[in-house]
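worker-03 picked up job from queue 'complexes'. Input manifest follows; two sequence lines, order preserved.
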Amino acid sequence: MEKVQSVRGTYDLFGDAKRKMKKVIATGESVVEKYGFEEIETPIFEFTEVFARNLGDTSDIVTKEMYCFEDKGGESLTLRPEGTAGVVRAFVANGMQQNLPVKFYYHGPMFRYERPQKGRQRQFTQFGVELLGVETPQADIEVIAMAYEFLQKLGLSGQITVEINSLGDAESRDTYREKLVAYLTQHIDELSEDSKNRLTRNPLRILDSKEDCDKTVIANAPRYADSLNENSRQFFAAVLKGLDLLDIKYRVNDRLVRGLDYYSHTVFELTTDKLGAQGTVLAGGRYNGLVAQMGGGDVAGIGWACGVERLSMLLQEDTALPRPIAVIPVGEDTQETALQIAHQLRLAGFSVEQSYSGNMKKRLMKANKVNAAQAVILGSDEVATNTATLKDLDSGEQKTVALADLIKELQA
RNA sequence: GCGGAUGUAGCUCAGUUGGUUAGAGCGCUGGUUUGUGGUACCAGAUGUCGAGAGUUCGAGUCCCUUCAUCCGCCCCA
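worker-03 finished. Artifact:
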């Protein structure tokens, strides 16, 4: 075995990094369940078309980032690059239109063949929510509020900016696209090479280009808001009003367009400046056409997903494990008693570390290393009198207690 | 996919214009007498110097290739 390293862009997760990710997911679950969301688990791979057809032929995810493979039956399959398409597919496949609204959350690995950087892996974890069957702005408000509360509970709201925009309905989007393309075509010589390409492929993306020459052109570009029709305008206003009512701070960014084709109306991103170029930590939007596109009828949808690794990298403090109780036998003839006591304490709900070898000094050192709060010391003297020495490892104080009272003492 | 930087013990890093047995701190192991840790002191182990080829009497140091990480672009969570 020569290649012991993990494949590019993948990581072994353990220790503090793993604990932080668990904390992010557990926090997300507890928040989202209060809003009535239930967990769904869909397969980690799907027929390639599920992603190819629905994310948009022009998106980079589809054109160059998917892990596609053929199985032994000759089917083209793809490791999921994002969560929404799979959940919507499951929604349609299981006929869930009968019982709207449907609220799901999920978490698990996603795969994208990209160049790795900090906060960007080829296998990464997303936690996301999907709310299907609600057309009113109330859904947008609730879903954003949920995202906001989630980051608040993680202690991150202070370093996060909420950016929001509206792409409007299909009509508004088409109107704007035409206007924008017309404008940009006049200035095509001033655009960067990348943007010249995007002009035919995905012109909206030019709006958030980081190239200076693009920025100058964009500064005078037609504004998205001016292309929104009355319906779209009212919808967006209602969403913003709701956020105001809930005291959620946001910034309207009319350059914000999302990468995937299925978005309409509200789109939003929660970003930080602490992760370099990978500042987007949670993002989502409304996707009213997606269910119909998969043959599930006219059902509205909205959702978001967050990068669990990115969020956990923002968590400052090390996540502490619960402090165990160390059970320490002294001498050979006390081992069996120690085994029994450790077992009883565990049955009583305590977290117990048995040191497996060494003299008393060694075992106390190990107790210290696992951050034990108390040590139950069992020597032949103690065993002979049915007692144990209970030592507080913070203060160093110790006392003799009867074995019968041990659990009561530890609970105090 | 494009541009740039980096790669030396478990971790963070030092290593002088190429010159003999490659270093530090932290961590780890053992000890400072037999049943008392977290502090202190003493001792010890650990590296195919990312991998491969090359130049040279001699390469951790120079050239090339490759792999990986980091930064930026693209894109995105």
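worker-03 released lock.
Chain A has a mean pLDDT of 90.
Residues 15-169+229-314 of chain A form a domain with the BirA Bifunctional Protein; domain 2 fold (CATH 3.30.930.10).
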